[in-house]
Amino acid sequence: MREITFSEALGEAILEEMSRDPTIFTYGEDIAKQGGIFGAYKPILGKYQDRIIDTPISEEVIFGSALGAALAGMRPVAEFHFADFLFTGMAAIANQIMKFKYMTGGQGKLHLILRGPDGISKSAAAQHSESIETIFMHIPGIKVIIPSTPYDMKGLFKTALKSDDPVICFEHKMLYAKKGPVPEEEYYIPFGVADVKREGRDVTVIATSRMVHESLAAAEELSKEGISVEVVDLRTLIPWDKETVFKSVKKTHKVVIAHETWRRAGWGAEIAATIQEELFDYLDAPIRRVGAKNVHIPFSPPLQDFVVPDRKSVIEAIRSVL
Amino acid sequence: MELSKDLLLKLYKDMVRIRTFELKAEELFLQGKLPGFIHLYIGEEAIAVGAMANLRVEDYITSTHRGHGHMIAKGASMRRMMAELYGKKHGYCKGKGGSMHIADVSIGVLGANGEVGGGLPIAVGAGMAIKLQKKDNVVVSFFGDGASNRGSFHESLNWASVFKLPVIFLNENNQFASTERVQETTSVENIADRAVGYNIPGVTIDGNDVLAVYETVKEAVERARNGGGPTLIEAKTYRIKGHFVGDPQLYRTKEEVEMKWTNEPIGRFEKTLFEGGFLNDKAKEKIWKEARAEVEDAVKFAEEDEYPVPEEALEDLFEDSTNCLY
C-alpha cells in the first residue's frame, strides 16, 4: 500500500469532501498562504482557494463564527493554530458551541470542526505545547477525535466532515510528517471505534496520539523479554469505545493508560475509574496511569524530557503491573 | 418620511405586543410561577421592532439575555416562548434553556445569549456563510452597552470590516450593564464612536424613537445587502426595569426612573400616530386588547402544557449521541 504523511492524509480528507460538498470551508491563522504553522495544510494549497481563508488573530471569532456559519448552512473547519490558544477563545467554544444545541432543545445542525496541532515539539515551552483534550471530554457538547496515524487521520476526518455534530480534532505536532499506509480507495472510520494497534496477552496499554507510538515502541522492546503487550488506540474520546477496551481488559487483566496530557485528572483517570467500576473482578493489578508530571511544559530539553512521558515511562508502568 | 399606515401600525402593534408580554412575564415571575430569572425589555421595544421591520424571515439575528422583544419582533410564537419561560415541554427549548436561551433557528433567531457579548461572533459567522453562499441576506446582532466592552465586540467589528460582511451591529445602550452605569465603565461617550477604529460607519440614534431606528437600520441593511459591509448603530435607550425582575436597584433613584417613564417609546410613538391621524382611542384599545388576548392565550398554553419527563434531560446534546453520555 502507498504511504503518505499525516498532513497529506488530512489534506486528502479535506479535498475529497470539499470536491463534493460546496458548504465546506476552512479558515484560521497562517493557513491560506503558508499552509499552517506546521504545514498541515500545504497539501491543499492551490485548490479551492476561495474556501481557504486567512483570518485576523481573533480566537473568539474564529471559534464563535464557526457556530454562526454552521447554523447558516455551512460546514466550517476552523483551525486553532495551537491547542493552547483554544483557551484564548474558550468562551465561544465552551459557552456557545458546546451548549447551543442542548440549551435550545436540539435546534440546528452544528456541523463544524475545530482542528489543529497539540502536544510537544522541540522546546516550544508552556504556551505552545499543551495537550488539553481532556477538557473537551469533560465538558459535554463536542466530539473529540485524536488520531495517531495517517490512516486514522484521514478516515476520522472524513467522518467529521460528514458529522452533524461539533467535532474537535487534535493533531500532534510530531505526527504531521510521519508516514503510514493509506489506501487509494475511499474509506471512513466511525467515531467510537478503538483500534487494536498491536495484539498481546499480558497487559493492555490504552493510548492515543503520540503515546500510541511510544506504547508500540515499549511493546516491541518488552517483547524481547517475552512480555506480550496489547496496545489499544482509542482514536476518539467522545465517544470512546468501551466495548473494545473491556474486551482487551478481560483478556489481559492488567491495564496501563498512557497519554501526554497531565496525569492528574487526565482522561486516563476516567477510563481507569470506568474499568474498576465495571470490571473490578477481572483486574489482577491496580490500573497504572502514564501522563505528564503536574507542571507546565518547560523549555530546556532535559526539563521537557523529564516532564513529558515517553516509551520509558510506559515500560516502567507495564513492569509495575506484571 | 413616507411610511405606509400599515407599516406604522405594525410597528406600534409589535411594540404593544412586546410590552404586554413583558408585563405579564413580570407578573407571573412575581407570583412565583416562573423558575429562574428573567430580564425585561420594557422601555426598549422600539429597537427590536424598528430594526426587525427591515428584515426577511431568512435574515438572521443574534439576541441577548434581554431577548424576549427580539423574538417577538422576528415573528416567534408567544405560546412557545411562554411555555419555555415556564420550563414546559413544548417551549422553544423543550424546557432546557429558559428565558435566556430562547432561539428559533427556523426564523433566523440564532439564540438569545446568557453570555454578554456571546452573540457577536455567531453573527459574524452567519455573515461569513451568507457571503460564501453569495446571498443577499443580512445579520443583525443585538448587544448591550456592557457587551461593547468585551473582546468579542472588538474582534467581531474588526473581522466584519476586514471581510465586508453583511452584519449590522445594533447596540442597545440602555445605560446600565447590570448595576453599573455606562459612563463608569466605558471609555467613549457614544459607543458608535468605536466604529471609527474599525473603519465602518457608526451612528448614534435615539433608540426610543421607533421611526429613527427603522430608518437607520433600513439604510444599514440596504448597504449590507449590496455588499457595502457592516454598520455599527448605537440606539440610546433606558432600562426602565431592573436588570432582572427582583433587582433592588440600589444604583439609581425612583425619581430617575419615573422621569424616564415619560420618554418610553410606546407613548411617544402613540402621540405621533394620534397627531398624524393614524390612530385613535378606539383603534388603540383594540390593539392593546388583542395583545392581551394573545398573551393570555400563551399563558393558558403554557400552564396547560406538561413538564418534560426527567429523562428528557438526556436528549438534545448531539444529533447522534450514541455512546456519548458515559
**CATH homologous superfamily placement of the largest domain in chain A:** Thiamin diphosphate (ThDP)-binding fold, Pyr/PP domains
CATH level-1 class of the largest domain in chain A = Alpha Beta
Number of helices of chain B: 11
Termini gap of chain A:
37 Å
**Shape by Cα distribution of chain A:** globular
CATH class descriptor name of chain B = Alpha Beta
Q: Widest sheet of chain B: strand order?
A: 1-2-3-7-6
Number of domains of chain A: 2
CATH architecture of the largest domain in chain A: 3-Layer(aba) Sandwich
Helix percent of chain A reads 25-40%
Going by CATH, the architecture of chain B would be 3-Layer(aba) Sandwich
Mean pLDDT over the full residue set of chain A: 97
- Give the helices and strands of chain A as they follow along the chain: EHEEHEHEHEHEEEEHEEHEHEHH
Write down the overall mean pLDDT of chain B. 97
- Output the structural class of chain B: alpha/beta
User: What would the CATH topology of chain B be?
Assistant: Rossmann fold
Biggest β-sheet strands, sense, barrel of chain A: 7 strands, mixed
General form of chain B: globular
